[in-house]
Structure formats: C-alpha cells, structure tokens
C-alpha cells in the first residue's frame, strides 16, 4: 500500500545519505515496515518487501528485525525464487571490501545465507561466480577465536562444500587444515561449533583431492585419536552427534584407496571394533555402531576365492596350481595382503571438470526440460517380430482353432450361422453358443 511504499522511499533516502551501518533512522523505518507487513499477513508481499529491502539497504539496521522472519521453509523458498540469494551474495561481496569488515553485518549475512542456502540448489555455483566463495573462509582464518562470527561462516561453508568444485577450490586454499585446527584437540567447550566444523569437514572430504590431502597430512590418525577421546570422556552419551560426525569424516576419507590404507596402518580396525563393542549395550548409540561397521567392512582386505589362508573357514585347494602365472602369484602372497586390485580412485583427475559439465547440463535442463520425452504412443510400443515366417506357422493352426476360425452366432431353427448384432441393453459378458448346442 501507499504507506509501505512511502516507508521504502524513506529507507532508500536514508541509505543514500547516511553512513553505512550507523543509521538509527533506518532501524526505525524498517521496524515500521515489518509491523505493516505482519499486520497484513500477506505471505508473498512479505517476501517481496524483504527482497526490496535487501536491494535497497546495506546497513545493519535494515536486517536486524528481518533476521528471524523469513527463515521458515516456504518463505525461504519463495525468497530464493525472487533472487534473494543473489542479493545476499552481492551484499556480502560489497561489505567485505570494508577494512575491517563490519562484524555485525557479516554475522547477519552469513546467518541468512545459512538459512536459505539449503533451499537454493545453485548457491554454490552462484557464490563461486560472484567471487564470494573465499570471503567466509578468510573470515574464519582471521577470527578463529571469535566463535560468534566463525559459527555462521562455517554453516555457510558447509552449504558451499556440497558442490565438489567448491570443495576442491576451498581445499586448495587450506580449508581442510583449518577445520582440523577447530575440531582438535579434545574440548567440551563450544560443542555447537565443533559439530558444524565436523559436518563441514565430512562434506569437504568427499572430494578425493581433499581426502588425499588429509591422508598426506596424517589426519586419519588424528581423527581416530579424536574419536577415542570423545568415546572415553562422553560417559553419559550427551555428545553422540559429535562422535558420529567424527565417524562421518573417517567414512569420507576412506572412500579412496590411500585413506583405507592409512586407516589400516593407524590400527583403525581395532579401534573401531573395540569402541563398537563397548557401545552395543546402549541402544541410543546404534548409529555409531552402524557407521563403524560400514567403515570396517569397507576397509577390510578383500580376497578372491579360493582362500588358501586362515581367513577362510574352508580351504579350497585348486586341483592343479601352475608353477608360474597370476594364480601362482596369488597363492604366494602373505595372508594379510589385499589381492583384489583397487582402482576406485585412480582416475579422478577429471573430478572438477565433470562437476562443471554437470552444472552446465543442469542449466540447460531449465530451458529444455522435456525436449527429449517421446509423446507418440505408436513409437513407444515395442515392435513384435516373428522369429519364423508365417508359412511355417500355419502347420500349427489345427491345434489352436480359436485363433483362426470365425465364430458366429448359430440360428437353431435354420441351422445356419447368422450375423451377430450386439444388444445395447446388455451390460454383462456375451456368451456365444457353439455349433450344435441346444
């Protein structure tokens, strides 16, 4: 309405005349707009006005009253469709140019991005294109002791890391090493920050490049040590999510061959087996046992049958073992050697390129979504071709007369067939009498 538009005009004028982030008038005008929108109860109008405010305002006061108002699922989704993600990323890029950046504004922008990020499947690509990808990472690097600022930044990095291209880019800039500075050594302070850092690290380690970097730095042993520390000190099982987060990181890093070897070398099988045995008595710790079992099954050495070692309950002896060749080599291997060739992570150089191609294909699908869907029913029907000529099949007609003879209704008076005329009043199935039936 006219009142709202008038307040928006005032806010725009304030932003042009006042110093960035220091206007009390902007806070007052924003509160008035919020009151009007909430009194109307119009859902779509609310989101549109929020987008308008984001477009107009760069001061902290313009966001404070809106911080918790469009965090709901539906409102966040509508905000994404209206371009809210792009506006927030642009504001983040503009605000980062100040030296030093406004901490309150950075906290608020990252909080909003963390809330609407899961609703926008393209937020990772948008952040990379806008140049906002490393802003959050640099804030974490320079403010490790400022947990109020680091927490929302990690939440945004967790959203960015779901895109493998972003994960590789962030890994090259040292994000993996940074996460290990946050999660270790063991401490029960700031457990919420610890949980977000573990979730972010697990997402980053899904990239094979980052997983190899973690193995080279010796972080597999560090993850096992952290897990054992939490297992010993969490006697009341209050921090099960943190313990599971550590296991998720181990699970991600063991997706590559080097990670599985590092896990075995660090005595990971024994560690997870012993901790799992101690968790069996507590039903709430079943997720830890299940994840540990998946990791151990994945890392256990694989062997081909027949097994000539003590690993097998049965000994399958080949009748003839050649003196040389691949079979003889397998039988000459020590019992603890994995004789199954693992090529799961040998051809991952095109990881980034494949992800970029996937993103480009997704963009094309937005415009040409249904072009490849066939709508002609005749073309969709499978063509049935006979395996033998029809002439050769006629010899079987005498065995299946119902497939070839022309059945007609029989006139019992004249003893001659008469043309069949269906009765329109009949609703049930029509039974045609056979010849000679009384």
UniProtKB/TrEMBL annotation:
It holds the Pfam family TPR_CCP1_N. Residues 336-363 have a biased composition (Acidic residues). Residues 334-384, 418-438 are annotated as: Disordered. GO terms for molecular function: carboxypeptidase activity. The chain crosses the membrane at residues 43-64. InterPro entries: ARM-like, ARM-type_fold. It comes from the Eukaryota. Keywords: Carboxypeptidase, Hydrolase, Membrane, Protease, Transmembrane, Transmembrane helix. Residues 364-384 have a biased composition (Basic and acidic residues). This is CBPC1 carboxypeptidase.
């Amino acid at each position: 309405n006219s009142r709202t538009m008038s307040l928006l005009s005032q806010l725009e004028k304030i932003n042009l005349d006042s110093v960035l982030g220091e206007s009390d008038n902007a806070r007052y005008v924003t509160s008035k707009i919020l009151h009007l929108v909430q009194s109307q109860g119009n859902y779509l109008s609310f989101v549109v006005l929020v987008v308008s405010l984001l477009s107009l305002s760069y001061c902290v006061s313009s966001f404070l009253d809106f911080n918790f108002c469009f965090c709901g699922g539906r409102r966040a989704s509508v905000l994404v469709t209206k371009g809210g993600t792009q506006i927030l990323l642009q504001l983040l890029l503009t605000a980062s140019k100040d030296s030093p950046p406004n901490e309150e504004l950075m906290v608020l922008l990252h909080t909003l991005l963390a809330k609407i990020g899961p609703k926008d499947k393209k937020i990772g690509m948008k952040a990379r294109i806008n140049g906002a990808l490393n802003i959050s990472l640099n804030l974490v690097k320079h403010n490790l002791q400022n947990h109020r600022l680091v927490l929302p930044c990690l939440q945004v990095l967790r959203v960015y890391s779901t895109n493998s291209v972003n994960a590789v880019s962030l890994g090259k800039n040292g994000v993996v090493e940074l996460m290990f500075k946050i999660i270790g050594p063991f401490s029960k302070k700031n457990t919420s920050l610890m949980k977000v850092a573990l979730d972010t690290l697990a997402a980053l380690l899904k990239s094979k490049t980052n997983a190899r970097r973690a193995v080279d730095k010796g972080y597999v042993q560090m993850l096992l040590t952290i897990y054992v520390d939490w297992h010993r000190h969490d006697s009341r099982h209050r921090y099960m999510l943190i313990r599971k987060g550590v296991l998720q990181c181990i699970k991600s890093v063991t997706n590559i061959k080097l990670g599985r070897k590092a896990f075995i070398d660090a005595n990971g099988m024994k560690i997870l087996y012993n901790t799992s045995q101690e968790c069996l008595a507590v039903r709430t710790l079943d997720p830890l046992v299940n994840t540990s079992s998946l990791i151990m099954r994945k890392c256990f050495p694989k062997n081909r049958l027949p097994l000539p070692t003590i690993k097998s309950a049965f000994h399958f002896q080949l009748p003839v073992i050649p003196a040389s060749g691949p079979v003889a080599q397998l039988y000459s291997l020590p019992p603890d050697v994995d004789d199954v060739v693992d090529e799961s992570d040998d051809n991952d150089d095109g990881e980034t390129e494949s992800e970029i191609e996937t993103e480009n294909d997704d963009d094309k699908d937005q415009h040409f979504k249904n072009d490849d869907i066939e709508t002609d029913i005749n073309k969709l029907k499978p063509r049935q071709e006979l395996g033998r000529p029809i002439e050769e099949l006629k010899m079987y007609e005498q065995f299946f007369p119902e497939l070839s003879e022309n059945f007609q209704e029989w006139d019992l008076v004249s003893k001659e067939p008469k043309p069949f005329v269906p009765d329109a009043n009949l609703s049930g199935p029509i039974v045609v009498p056979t010849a000679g039936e009384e």
